[in-house]
Design a protein that fits this description.
With 255 residues, the chain is an alpha/beta fold. The chain contains 8 helices and 11 strands. The protein is 35% helix and 19% strand.
Length: 255
């Protein structure tokens, strides 16, 4: 990804990212921080779309594993994303932004239906657009929804906000302090290494459409503004060669 600021971005915010330090639900200060940073991104002249997950409220995959019908569990998860979208919309509006929420399933009392051309028009008019309810289909994750919507609206980059890690690592950096971070990661390498950056369907969609992905830590100061401006310090996934950073100093062997 170029260091020049893109024209249009799509942020993927997981449900867990909205929890802050809470064990469950939505953390109001976290929402306010996100809203303020989104406003700063708009002031850079960048159009902003957002896809939200629902894992802070309900996880369809977990319910399915516990015995619930998978399609039913996934639809319940879609409803959780709508709750998050409405809460995020309120925070953005309180920050002075104009927002439109579009849902892939019909909830006309609280959100517009997803219509691609209307979403693009909202972005062109300087409105933040939140996409809720994933793709509207069971068996599809909100990562896939983020990739799909980013491609549909012509975003220049998909920005994946993580809660606790600043990029993609060889292994879990919390469990393995010696894990090295990827500064750059090729699409095929990400797929072949099964790094769990996002699900393989979403990653394949990005690869087929040459949509760069940036993985960054939402908890870093000004993380959203830095990610949008290309100064994130996380991991960029794209067509370029894979580049690993040096191992952490503490993990280097002594001489």
């Amino acid at each position: 990804m170029s260091q020049h600021a893109p024209h249009r971005v799509l942020f993927k915010l997981s449900g867990e990212a909205l929890m802050g330090d809470l064990p469950y639900g939505i953390d109001a200060p976290t929402l306010s921080t996100i809203a303020g940073q989104v406003g700063s991104v708009q002031e850079m002249g960048i159009q902003v779309a957002i896809v939200v997950g629902g894992g802070n409220i309900y996880r369809g995959a977990a319910a399915s594993a516990a015995g619930m019908d998978r399609a039913t569990a996934d639809y319940a998860g879609m409803l959780a994303t709508i709750i998050n979208a409405i809460a995020l919309q309120d925070a953005l509006e309180r920050a002075g932004l104009t927002v439109r929420t579009q849902s892939a399933i019909s909830v006309t009392a609280v959100a517009e239906p997803y219509i691609r051309r209307r979403a693009i028009r909202h972005l062109e008019k300087g409105r933040v657009v939140i996409f809720a309810a994933g793709t509207g289909n069971p068996y599809m994750t909100t990562d896939t929804a983020a990739a799909l919507r980013a491609i549909e609206v012509g975003a220049d980059v998909l920005l994946m906000a993580k809660k606790n890690v600043n990029g993609v690592y060889e292994s879990d950096p919390i469990e393995d302090p010696a894990a090295r971070k990827f500064r750059a990661l090729n699409y095929l390498d990400a797929l072949n290494r099964r790094l769990q950056v996002m699900d393989s369907t979403a990653l394949s969609l990005c690869m087929e459409n040459s949509l760069p992905i940036v993985v960054f830590n939402l908890r870093m100061p000004h993380s959203i503004e830095l990610a949008a401006s290309g100064k994130h310090g996380g991991t960029t996934i794209g067509d370029s060669a894979t580049v690993l950073e040096d191992a952490p100093t503490a993990a280097k062997p002594s001489r």
